Amino acid sequence: MVEHLSLASSTRSSREFKSPEKELQGQRTPSHIPVLAATPPRFMAAPSPGLGVSPSPRSSISRSLSRSVSPSKQSFFLTKDSNVRTEQWDYESRFQTIESQFQNMAKKVDNTISEKEGLQESINQFKNKISELESIRLQLTTNNTRLQSELDECRGKFTSASLALEECRRAHSFEADDLRRKHRNTTEDLRDEHRRELEKMKKENDNAADKSRKDFETEVEKLIKLHQNELDELQRKLKVEVAEEKSKRAQEFDELQKQWASKLHGVDIDLDAKEREAQKVRGELSIITTDLERERLIKGSLQEKLSEAAGNNIALETANREMKAKIDFLESDNQAQSNSFAELHRRMQEAIESAAQANEKLRVEETLRRKLHNQVQELKGNIRVFCRVRPTLASSEIEPANIAYPDCETDSKEVAVRGPEQRTALGNVTTSNNSFSFDRVFGPTSQNAEVFEEISQLVQSALDGYNVCIFCYGQTGSGKTYTMSSPDGMIPRAVQQIYAEATRLEEKGWKYRMDGSFVEVYNENINDLLGKSEDLDKKKLEIRHDTAKKQTIITDVTTVELDGPDRVDEMLKRASNNRSVAATKANERSSRSHSVFILKLVGVNSITGERSEGTLNLVDLAGSERLAHSQAQGERLKETQSINKSLSCLGDVINALGSAKENAHIPYRNSKLTYLLQYSLGGNSKTLMFVMVSPDQAHLQETITSLKFATKVHNTHIGTAKKQTKTKD
Ligand SMILES: Nc1ncnc2c1ncn2[C@@H]1O[C@H](COP(=O)(O)OP(=O)(O)OP(=O)(O)O)[C@@H](O)[C@H]1O
């Protein structure tokens, strides 16, 4: 290290150090350029003796300096071409400076020389060390060579071992491959066999399932067809028989009446004719009598002519006799007429009797009709679901949703709704197609009359002694109130039909009493919509159940006897007024509460002694929109929560009814609505749900939710309904 440093410094010195002669030669410039010539040489370090520099630098430097310095002071031009004069440099002082620098330099050289000696010593030490190290290195090299040979030997061994191992591995791998191949072949064989076995089993299974399904289906179809045919046949026969019987009886009756009337008419005419003849005869008789009298008078005067007139008299007497015979004949003809009248009377009595028999037969047939009607209703299922899509409102400029009616030309049971657009992870836009199927789907062009036609059979059932519940489900603005309570909605039409039917049944001995009440379930409270408006939300109405009679009673509720179809309009108006008083906006209250129109129908047949009690519940449910979607707060939040609760309870009850075994718990008590409808939902009742649908794209999500809820209800099967008919003791 030290050696290296000294070498570097000596190199630098050789580069920087110039001999004073050379220096002075370089300064041998024209005398008028003193600046360059006067630059003193720089002594950075002493030159190394090993590099061929003069061993006595100090003497050579002083020599050159003494040669170059001239003490005289002269004036020079600044440059060769300049005429500016400058004074000659002060060589004395410069010489002194250089002398002192030289001294310093000489000192440094001495130091360096002593340093060099120290370094030389160190170099010698290092050389010794190097030779020592060299001997160690030689030893190590010998060791290394030995180890290398050992290592080579080991490597040779390792290579042979590796080769042996590789050989072994290869052999093992071949073996493993063989085994694997064998195993794979065996597995594949087994798998093939297993697949074949499975396919065979599956085929057998499928065939068996197909066969049994087909058998079952054909059996079911056969049974249904048979039943349907029987039913159709029965109905057809019944209709034909009734029509035939009716027309026969009517014909007979008409004929009899006609015969009787024509006979009576003939008899009357005959009687008149006979009367006229008798009158005529009587008139002739009186004429003859007068004649006779005159003749008798004349006889006296014509005594003489008596003999002449005797012949005349005999002739007259003969004529008189003839006349009498004629009168007798006429009188005997009158008797025949009386006899035929009596005969006619008897036949008329017979006709009346057979008409009474026909009426009796009709009554029996009416009972049979009811039975068949309810059999048909039961076959259709005790809970039915109809879907109605309202038309797009003229005022709305909202985009319509994509709703299709695939079988509108045939069954009208399906509705397909295109779901909202969804973006996949890859960024593609997709839409789902949601298809729903119900007992009947009414499109936007359907009218209330058409809808009512489908439910009129259920209304008939209420008259026949069943509990019927028809409710409308759907979001706000989907058309529930329009369907239920508009002037030509289901409520007025149902009442009209019931009234017309009750009047028709009067001839068959039935007398009905109809009592209507109208209540509202608002925030889990029952309000009387026919009571005073100021009592709304204040008066507490309670629901009581008569478990023995299976009847629901609402305490203090207003009940109106519907003695004519017009009364229902009054009721609806009153209810609507009460609701609009309670709400700030007219439509607000109806959207936020459930309204229940209850019609109790009690019928008594004075001829057969039968009694029937049925209830028709027409329910307009509150808007079904979800809590998150409505973003309700405060009072509204409470309303929405209670609506959602009661609607979900309704779903739970229907679900429980569908899945429950006999006597299982049905959670009617979980909400006021289901508790109120306890005897009109399930076992002894017939239920119809309308799911109302808005056609707007903005309501699409709610529409799909409503249709899904309705599908659940539609898939529920509720047990057979029972008629509440009692016979007189
Ligand atoms: N089938 C239809 N034909 C014509 N207009 C209809 C039909 N259905 C509903 N509408 C109209 O749509 C609007 C909303 O209907 P409606 O008030 O019956 O809805 P809703 O579901 O009962 O609402 P809410 O829950 O607020 O009571 C009304 O203006 C109604 O006249």
TrEMBL record:
Record key words, sorted: ATP-binding, Coiled coil, Cytoplasm, Cytoskeleton, Microtubule, Motor protein, Nucleotide-binding
Composition bias type Basic and acidic residues, residue spans: 13-25
Coiled-coil annotated spans: 109-143, 313-382
Biased composition (Low complexity): 54-67
PROSITE patterns hit by this protein: KINESIN_MOTOR_1 (PS00411), KINESIN_MOTOR_2 (PS50067)
GO cellular component terms given for this protein: microtubule
InterPro entries: Kinesin-like_fam, Kinesin_motor_CS, Kinesin_motor_dom, Kinesin_motor_dom_sf, P-loop_NTPase
Kinesin motor domain segment(s): 382-716
Record region (Disordered): 1-67, 185-213
Entry keyword annotation includes Nuclease: no
GO molecular function, one term: minus-end-directed microtubule motor activity
First-listed, main subcellular location of the protein, grouped into a coarse class: cytoplasm
Protein's GO biological process: microtubule-based movement; mitotic spindle assembly
Chain sites annotated for binding ATP: 474-481
Compartments where located: Cytoplasm, Cytoskeleton
Family: Belongs to the TRAFAC class myosin-kinesin ATPase superfamily. Kinesin family. KIN-14 subfamily.
Name listed for the protein in its UniProt record: Kinesin-like protein
Species: Lophium mytilinum
Lineage: Eukaryota, Fungi, Dikarya, Ascomycota, Pezizomycotina
